[in-house]
Hints:
Elements (H helix, E strand, L loop, with lengths): L18 H7 L2 H7 L4 H8 L2 E6 L3 H4 L10 E6 L4 E8 L2 H7 L5 E6 L5 E7 L15 E5 L5 E8 L6 E6 L4 E6 L8 H4 L8 E7 L5 E8 L3 H6 L4 E5 L6 H19 L5 H6 L1
Antiparallel strand pairs: 1-2, 1-12, 2-3, 3-4, 4-5, 5-6, 6-7, 7-8, 8-9, 9-10, 10-11, 11-12
Amino acid sequence: MAEHGIPGQVGGGEGGVNPTEIVMEQPKSVTETTKYSSVGLEELAKTDRVLVQQLAEYAEANCSCGYEGENQFEVTDRFGHQIFFAEEDSACCFRQCCESLRGFEMKLSDRQGKPSVVINRPLRCDNCCVCPCLTQEMTVECPAGNAAGSVEQCISLFTPTYIIKDREGEDKFVIEGPTSMCSCFKSCCKCCRGRDVLFRIVDIVTEQQVGCISKKWNGVLKEVLTTADRFSIDFPPDIEVELKATLLAATFLIDYLHFEADPTDSDDEDD
């Protein structure tokens, strides 16, 4: 006579538990927790949009000698939950003499204080047709110590253009700014400063827009009284967290090159 197993027991008869179901379910949580080295990277991988807020430096804004401090940023998801705290590390003499062209290292730490992304920007001359080899660039490590990608500025007379490369050096995206961001932006297109400034993220292969970096208009008082800028990044769908970190680095580079200057400078030129 066949021996029947006890219901509910592995390998039993009717009502028994299938052993393959146990094997597939148990390691699932372990894989999810070990995929990313920090909470910040895990949250960055899940979100399709982040907000980048430069923290206002009131001592810098109220200093009549034009002192330039180290920038700090807060990166949050669309609901305002902090993902990273970014802090610039640069030499004081370079900040005062080179200003927005200065080289620096920027570390992005999650809310547990663990470094998750490291951005390196070498000191470079201003982009011009005479020195095309000195265009601006950034390299990105994500997590710290592992190459994730790079951002390279392209030579353009009318439209700010940046190339996003992966860890292998292959071109993945092109970031294209508005034509109003050319050198005559301050003098001829002052009306554009009263609205958001959009930078399109275009896929290299399809040549279609797949995302966007937007510099948010803070209002007259904040734009004049402080140099704290605010951005939003809409990531392309289904991309690796390393490319998201590289697009985040591109946002910082755009801020330094196009919005770092004191917004009251243009007003002083009209006097």
